[in-house]
Amino acid sequence: MSFLSSLADRDRVFDFLVPATSPVDVRHGPILYLDGVSVTFDGFKAIDDLNLTIEDGELRCIIGPNGAGKTTMMDIITGKTRPDSGSVWFGSRHNLLVKSEPEIASLGIGRKFQKPTVFEALTVFENLELAMAADKRILPTLTARMSGEIRDRIEEVLVTIGLVELHHGPAGILSHGQKQWLEIGMLLMQRPRLLLVDEPVAGMTEQEMERTAELLTGLAGKGKQSVVVVEHDMGFVRSIARTVTVLHQGSVLAEGSMDQVSHDPRVVEVYLGADPDEEAA
Ligand code: ADP
Ligand code: MG
Questions:
Q1: Is 182 helix (H, G, I), strand (E, B) or coil?
Q2: Pocket test for ligand 1, best of 72, 78, 248, 271 (most atoms within 8 A of CB)
Q3: Which helix or strand (DSSP H or E) is residue 155 part of?
Q4: Can you tell me whether residue 246 is helix, strand or coil?
Q5: Residues of the domain holding 92
Q6: Of 193, 181, 165, nearest to 128 (Cα)?
């Protein structure tokens, strides 16, 4: 039995002390921990001995050239792809490699794909309501008190994503950026502890990018969400980045502040010596 799994067993004794909405245990360590993860597709190592540690409340940016394994890494965390080796833990309690995709989602890991998938004919409010109803744990136990709580939560999320004024309108009339925020809001409805966001600012205006930077930095924080952002836009990464991880050929090439990694000769070489501000990640 590994050190981490024995910790997990010991902590189960204290399960009754932990609120059901916050099942992830970060008292003794990070919120997300990948150790020695590898996956091979048809003989090609897409992820190669990947190690990654995300602390509770952290906002982490992941960059790397096309094919570096960024999306595959998210597929592994969310249970869509199973690695050939390594371990993946959510807090000290949850071994993600033995859980299904829906189980991982209900533990509090929300993933935002690149394309917005909001329901255009429904209002902004209804989209958020539906996101909550999609939670199978809540639907069967829905009482009047619960639906009041859901309404409060929707109002809270509308403020967070800046769509209060538009909540009665159909989602179809929203701009591209607003649809992306609504989709982040739909994830927030279930109070995730970890958000994985794939290329949030692709196709956004400068102003929308600034607003998105505020939104994501505001979401991250201890006891709130931890946020992992994969993004190609270097200007955007520079504007939000605390720690940046550079993936290359399925493993971590460099990690540090934006300044540290963008001056790292290995990183410069991977980007073919291009100015990281000019070149896509
Ligand atoms: P990134 O998101 O960094 O651009 P990906 O994770 O999408 O990179 O891909 C990493 C590598 O793994 C690529 O070479 C890609 O072609 C390959 N790959 C990803 N998923 C699959 C799959 N399901 N089957 C075969 N090859 C895959
Ligand atoms: Mg990708």
A1: helix
A2: 72
A3: helix 144-161
A4: strand
A5: 7-274
A6: 181
Does residue 279 sit within a domain? no
**Strands ordered across the beta sheet of 243-248:** 109-112, 194-198, 226-230, 59-63, 243-248, 251-256
The CA-atom distances, in angstroms, between 8 and each of 90, 114, 224, 246, 248 are 11, 34, 22, 30, 32
Residue 14 binned pLDDT confidence (cut-offs 50, 70, 90): very low
How many domains are contained in the chain?
Answer: 1
Q: What is the pLDDT of residues 71-113, one digit of tens each?
A: 999 999 999 999 999 999 999 999 999 999 999 999 999 999 8
Is residue 14 within 6 Å of ligand 1 at its C-beta?
no
Rounded to the nearest whole angstrom, what is the distance from the C-alpha of residue 239 to the centroid of ligand 1?
27
Distance CA 188, CA 114 (A): 17
Amino acid at 144: A
| Angle at the Cα of 163 from the Cα atoms of 160 and 167, rounded to 5 degrees | 125
Does any domain span residue 78? yes
For residue 38, being part of any structural domain is answered with yes
Ligand 1 contact, 41 CB (< 6 A): yes
Q: Whose CA is nearest to atom 19 of ligand 1?
A: 72
CA of 69 to the centre of ligand 2 (A): 7
Adjacency order of strands within the sheet including 85-90: 44-54, 32-41, 85-90, 94-95
pLDDT at 17: 38
Q: Give the Å distance between the CA of 70 and the centre of ligand 2.
A: 5
* Domain at 214, CATH number: 3.40.50.300
Q: How many residues does the chain have?
A: 281
40 Cα: distance to centroid of ligand 1 (angstroms): 10
Q: Is residue 261 part of a domain?
A: yes
| Tokens matching residue 63 | 């960059």
